[in-house]
Fold this sequence. Notes:
Layout: H1 4-12, H2 21-29, E1 34-37, H3 44-54, E2 58-62, H4 66-78, E3 83-86, H5 92-104, E4 109-112, H6 120-127, E5 131-136, H7 157-162, E6 167-172, H8 177-186, E7 193-196, E8 204-210, H9 214-223, E9 228-232, H10 236-248, E10 253-256, H11 262-273, E11 279-282, E12 295-300, H12 307-314, E13 324-330, H13 334-343, H14 349-362, E14 374-377, H15 379-385, H16 390-402, E15 406-408, E16 415-420, H17 424-433, H18 435-447, E17 456-458, H19 460-467, H20 471-483, E18 487-492, E19 496-500, H21 507-510, H22 514-536, H23 542-549, H24 562-587, H25 594-600, H26 605-617, E20 621-623, E21 629-631
Parallel strand pairs: 1-6, 1-7, 2-4, 2-5, 3-4, 5-6, 8-13, 9-11, 9-12, 10-11, 12-13
Antiparallel strand pairs: 14-19, 15-19, 16-17, 16-18, 20-21
Helix pairs in contact: 2-3, 13-22, 14-16, 17-18, 24-26, 25-26
Amino acid sequence: MKTPLSLLQHYWNHSEFRIGQLEAIQSILEGNDTFVLMPTGGGKSVCYQIPALLKEGICIVVSPLIALMSDQVNQLKAKGIKAVQITGGISADEISTLLDNCSYGNYKFLYLSPERIQQEWIVERLKTMEVSMVAVDEAHCVSQWGHDFRPAYQKITVLREALPKCAFMALTASATPKVAKEIIEGLSLHAPVKIQTSFYRSNLAYKTLFTEDKMGVLLSLLKKNMDAVIVYTRNRRSTETVADQLNRLGVAALYFHGGLSTQEKNKRLKLWMNEKKKVMVATTAFGMGIDKTNVRKVIHLSLPESLESYYQEAGRAGRDGKPAESIILIDPLDKDAVKNKFINQLPTVETTFFAYRKLCNYFQLGYGEGTGVTFPFQFNAFCKTYQLPATKTYQILKLLDREGILQFSGNFKEQNRVQITLSNQGLFDYMENHTSSALLLKTLLRMYGGLFERLTRIDLDEVSKKTNRPKNELTQKLLQLEKENIVLLDRFETDTEITFLVPREDEQTLHPIARDIKSQYATKKGMIQSMIDFIENQQLCKSVQLAAYFGEKLSDWCGVCSVCEDTFAKNKKQITKIIREEILELLEKKSLNSEKISTLLPYKINDLLDVLDQLVNEEKLVVDSKNQYRLHQ
Length: 633
């Protein structure tokens, strides 16, 4: 008979559960809604995967990132467990086929993004399946007070209505008591069993190092390290800059960010996972869902926006339980930089009202008009027209979307349309004489029809996969072909849309949400201030500070963080001074050997011997023929 432990041994090759796992498994097997709060590396996925294997039917897993879903699905497949994911970029016919497979193919796991659950026809298909349970991963995305709020998460309750008999499990690695409460309410969990393990990671040393030479300190940290490292930077450009600098200075490093093609991401990830290259310089999303346990250092070159973000990112080090470090490198300008980047970009009531009025004017929307009207939207053109800061304006549009004022697709995907201007024969003649462009042109002809007749939308990501060439290289070739009058090229920076959900009444439209805007501003500002307080507090153990932020009280200091190390060094220096004085005072009376000194003074023998050696080296003491110490004359 299969049991949770037998499955753990068979599929995961572990002989025992980690703290909290078995309680979570038993809770869901008993049919209870369950809330699981475990630190990064605590083994949250096992909490829903094992009960799903024991129950009849398929487990629906809601997950926010494609990389996270892909990693989980690949791991399950490697174990011989049938799992499938439905993400963006898949046609309705393909989705329908995948759902058929889930219904009739004995699949155990179906991974979905929260946005997919908003499609009614998909939910209707889910109703026809035998669903064993629903797991909501990264559940902090439900809470608008969470560090990674995602509006679609608040609509997951449609699954609750569609599958009323299914037990739900919400899982997260970081949630304050306030966020935990919002998760439970936001997902409509019914009297959930709460499984919460300690936020304390005994093997992980949290360190803050103050320096004006970050690259110099980074270099010294990496050169004495032989294991895998993640270096987090603020943006895409800085990942490339830092990686280039490290390579020039003799440290083999890769960079990773969202602008790379899928093919290039997979290539770099494989090199790092196999430790062909041990240093990965990346933006902060990197590492989520990646099962690499032997990361010895996580280094932040810029301050995270919150302690929730920092705790998750830091937790990607030392998941094998061996000693590891999470290090933040700080210079005097960092505090102002994080305030400028995060606090100054937060929407206020005033900036939200201003941007909303400009948006209505941009679409020439009259008072009382707008309900249900959709407009194609060029975001950059809008910002340029009214000289609005792009980052803050984007945050305002997302806020208006969350509050139900409008619907903002926010899909900043580059669009390219191509038409070949030559005849068939003319194109073939061109390709014979320009072999460097021939591969791209042949691939386009194979993938898309009508290229000679009209401007045709192409997907450069897909073309990149087919040609095995980087996307930026293909873009440059298209621009060159346009310059040579071989093709017409029509490029769009965005394909976003705005749908107004309520009539335009300016202040009256936005007045009901003013309190929410103020509350969200204060909350986000408080989260950023908590991060600043954390790095500035050099009097209290870093592990104690982190645990307290998440509502947990630790009785002891960790002993390995930067504060503990400094405190230990100061205490040792003070103790050494006292031992010196007492030894010198003792030897003023008569000569003594080390054994006798240790019986007369209440200190550890190793500490006494260290001080005796120091005093001899300083020629304050000498050792006579009887191995006794006496004052130097």
